[in-house]
């Protein structure tokens, strides 16, 4: 089997992580997984949702969007249509849930960090790129909060990163681009910690069901890919 | 570890599947997983979404709702608030995707089956009960289509069923009720075919990340539970 | 004239009232008028709308919905379309207004009871079945409030019930089913108290105007039907 | 009992009907019932709703609105809030239904007449003023259609008019203004034809239930009032 | 060049300003620019938007609407469509901004005046008629506030008025009606104070770009027209 | 007077225009006016709005958005709030109108070009940067259409560019950044062609009215600035 990109089956696309991409947000990262490019910002707000007021606990939430022409055909702008589509809602819930699993919300105090992931160019894997970039923006926002004295402790429990894996033409491959993703038999998104713990696994059979053996192959590829991604996050953060 | 319900760790709640629960739909099932009760209907329409017209292929879609007082506290009615919440959207996308994986859409012809899953009483596991009940309603709808001569072949590829598993107080358990689900460390929904293939695996760490060993335990419990559920579907359908 | 159902002109359909139909609501009733089946729940909230805060007075409000396949053809889900239709709004305003007329809102204190009427199967007369069932759910909710010490007095002024009457093929008939309702010349909904007082009369000429004589016949049928319905409510409540 | 306005119990407010109030609509009427002022327009469109295409039958529909400061306190603009309130929906459905009962939709051909009733000043009875004025606008629109050769026959079956009656301080009175309406024990809207047939009766107990004797008194007042209103419509139309 | 109306190039249409047009609002004006007729009301509320609370400063905001049949073809009602169109939003922002420039918001105290401009008949220039009429309604509302002791000083800094100018068939003309407006090469709206200061200039090339010479001609016409309009406002207000 | 940025009163910020910024759109430009950064894409669609079908004429439309954290404080995402704000609507109408004035819509055939301007970092002047960048994206899209044989002629009539001018601390200045814009007495946006014709002038007094002399100064500054911008567009396009 030859991947359209010529990559080996366990090879990530070229990954770049650019911090301070825009100037206003406490954390602002441009992350690229090959031709997939996402701006991830982390915004600090001294306020929490209603259900947390008075609990001393903070919150992390996320919103996701795609520029209308980030894709091959122009998509209608969700703001103009007046509602976010089901896919958008699903992705932003995943991003928020994943990043909440990376921090101790009690150490965050009654502050909220809002993650915005806006895709400016899409070529598959936008949700995994978003989570991987957002974690770096989150670290920068936490650093800013500590420098400003908003919090004293470090709420970060562990770095997290995300990658897609899938069965393409019968073979398990890592980090699918759009050419692969749109033809994959199985598509799986995996989010893990730097220690190798699972935050989320979502594996969907697009055509035929997948077997336990395939599932194990996919998780193996994902594990290795995520460790590489976390290394790149650390380099970007100079940790 | 004692489960709140006194069940053993690999024990499903009492499952009932009542066909022909209401009179208008081509398939109408009341499914109960213990105190979780869901009405699943399958409605046949001789029409397909725009993107399928002229392809000869059919479609299955799903909608999900909860009666406002299906839960302990009354939830706002989504029709009154003017939009479906993120959780609703996520669940109905999952139901539709899963059932599409059970049928050969080409054999369905240019017809659409709409699955409605409406929770009248909730006690955890509403999405897995929905999928398990909806598959029975789907079979009844397919039978009706064949009897009416709308289609000639049988589009059903295999029965599917769904169950939740999770880590509760450090132990992997099957089919969580609300008391467990709201306190679980990890929550996983598994949808499988009667042959044991995976349609969807969604596992989320609610607190600490979960390990590979825990993931394997959860999949093992799910596999056994699903085979029991499919047996109950077959009994209900007198297959 | 023969009614499609073979009933006599002053004969109600078979009426059943099942209390405690679901487990979470303070009042939960399944009411059936023949093939029309409605789940009516009454939910207590220690809060009132903004315009009543500080007045010491309570409120009763109602919401109404139909499951998409409660009808012969599947109706679009209002939550998915993003708004409640005009018919829904009209019916839920009628239900709320009628039940408010059954209670002394001052004795209710600053508490709100929300009535949800969800039609799971429709065969005409869903609004009158809803009101008749909701009044029983309301009584149960009031009893629960008194048992929990939320209120001390009894805010219920009188039982109310509702029934439809209409001119079908030139003859006044009681409790129209769908076959009659969709062809009736005049359709009237009547809500009355156990003492025979009128809460609401809504009579609409669907085709030709109706005469004063016909109006009198309709009110006579409704009066008798409502007394029977209230007797059935009392039996269900063991009053 | 003294009415706040000093009127006798069976006395209408001063009624004026001004045709051709604005210049674009096929029918345009300013109707006033005392201080209640409504602009009623009838717009002809050579098109019908989807469900009537190909049937040869026409349609009449209505929309209702209030200018934000038509009332004592400014009401939020429905266009700005993004939805029509329940009261608006209920009223416009009543107006449309009533006027459809005045015409033979088959004679209308596949044309639609849209009635717009916009309240510029409110003092009670806006829906009955709307229907009374709209019937005149409708007649003008029908005349225009006949003059333009859009239709040949006369679809008008009979003039209709509407009036409110109610129990105010224990006495049945005709044509309630806001001072009465906001304190009435019972409020009833009656729509009748020039021949005395009923199109719609809607009577609501706002406080105590009303008796059959009171209902009869209210219908008697309404009948007389409506005959006067229809006479005023005829004068305005020079019929 | 002959104007369709026969007016000279610097001639306004017939202007009327009728105060106290409706009875509830603190200021209520019917303004007509020829066949364009707008009801402008000013409503006083002892409250300000969130961002002004505690600042001691007031606010003026505006909303604009057109009755559905104010135009040659019936327009869909914005309340029914569920959103205000772009043109509406643009116009009401312009009206609000212009009137805020006429008053000292600090002298207004923490009070809000809401301007509603509702077009009952349209023939071009609805936004300029709206602003011109609204300024008179605003003065009446301010007078009412002072009489009621809500404020002590006079927040009005200067009268303002608005007029449209444009290039029609190559010639600069004043106060375009619909016949001109829909064919103009350039359309400009000018809002000025009684002292001749500019509040807003909005000039748009509909076809070919316009030159500096044309711009100067348009501003000259507008200046003269606005002084006439302000004189008419003064007469109406008996200033 | 010293400008916060130290610029002279007639000095633009540093302007950059980067073509082919993203890979999918027919035209894709990153434009920066100092710290204001906007992605402008032009998307070609072989289709026109309903009102143009069969006319042989094309259309240009525009949509505008800001990433939530493009600004100092995070703004709510319009897609999540379910509607575009008034400012957004106003700006995207201005962008669309301006670009339509740059092309001969007849030469475009029945094709639509959609301009998306998405602000990734804001520091004042986002609408003028958007128009200036969008014109370059438009030229690239037109070139692509000609290369693909979609059109044969060149619909571009002239380049256009836009700049803001304003009165800041009593002095007319060119190209206001946020520090100036948020404190300016008068704010004016000017859109002109390469030949010096006006497409649009929008000048608003934020505080005191502005005089004719000030207006003339502002137009003078804008004229010079726009010629510089058009030169930069030409360099970017290698024209």
UniProtKB/TrEMBL annotation, chains A, B, C, D, E, F:
Its EC number is 2.7.7.56. GO terms for molecular function: 3'-5'-RNA exonuclease activity; tRNA binding; tRNA nucleotidyltransferase activity. One of its GO terms (biological process) is tRNA processing. It catalyses: tRNA(n+1) + phosphate = tRNA(n) + a ribonucleoside 5'-diphosphate. Keywords: Nucleotidyltransferase, RNA-binding, rRNA processing, Transferase, tRNA processing, tRNA-binding. Phosphate binds at residues 87, 125-127. It comes from the Bacteria. It is an enzyme of class 2 (transferase). Residues 11-141, 158-222 form the Exoribonuclease phosphorolytic domain. InterPro entries: ExoRNase_PH_dom1, ExoRNase_PH_dom2, ExoRNase_PH_dom2_sf, PNPase/RNase_PH_dom_sf, Ribosomal_Su5_D2-typ_SF, RNase_PH, RNase_PH_bac-type, RNase_PH_CS. Homohexameric ring arranged as a trimer of dimers. Phosphorolytic 3'-5' exoribonuclease that plays an important role in tRNA 3'-end maturation. Removes nucleotide residues following the 3'-CCA terminus of tRNAs; can also add nucleotides to the ends of RNA molecules by using nucleoside diphosphates as substrates, but this may not be physiologically important. Probably plays a role in initiation of 16S rRNA degradation (leading to ribosome degradation) during starvation. Belongs to the RNase PH family. This is Ribonuclease PH.
């Amino acid at each position: 089997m030859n991947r359209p990109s010529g990559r080996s089956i366990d090879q990530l696309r070229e990954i770049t992580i650019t911090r301070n991409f825009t100037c206003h947000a406490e954390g602002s990262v441009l992350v690229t997984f090959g031709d997939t490019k996402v701006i991830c910002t982390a915004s600090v707000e001294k306020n929490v949702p209603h259900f947390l007021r008075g609990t001393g606990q903070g919150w992390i939430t996320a919103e996701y969007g795609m520029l209308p022409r980030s894709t091959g055909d122009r998509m209608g702008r969700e703001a103009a249509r007046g509602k976010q589509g089901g896919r958008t809602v699903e992705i932003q819930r995943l991003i928020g849930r994943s990043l909440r699993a990376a921090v101790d919300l009690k150490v965050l105090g009654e502050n909220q960090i809002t993650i915005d992931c806006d895709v400016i160019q899409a070529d598959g894997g936008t949700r995994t790129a978003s989570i991987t970039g957002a974690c770096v923006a989150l670290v920068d926002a936490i650093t800013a909060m500590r420098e400003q004295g908003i919090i004293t402790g470090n709420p970060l429990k562990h770095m997290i990163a995300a990658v897609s894996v899938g069965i393409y033409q019968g073979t398990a491959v890592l980090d699918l681009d759009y050419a692969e993703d749109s033809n994959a038999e199985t598509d799986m998104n995996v989010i893990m910690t730097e220690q190798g713990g699972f935050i989320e696994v979502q594996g969907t059979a697009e055509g035929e069901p997948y077997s336990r053996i395939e599932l194990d192959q996919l998780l193996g590829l994902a594990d290795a890919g995520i460790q590489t991604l976390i290394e790149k996050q650390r380099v970007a953060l100079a940790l």
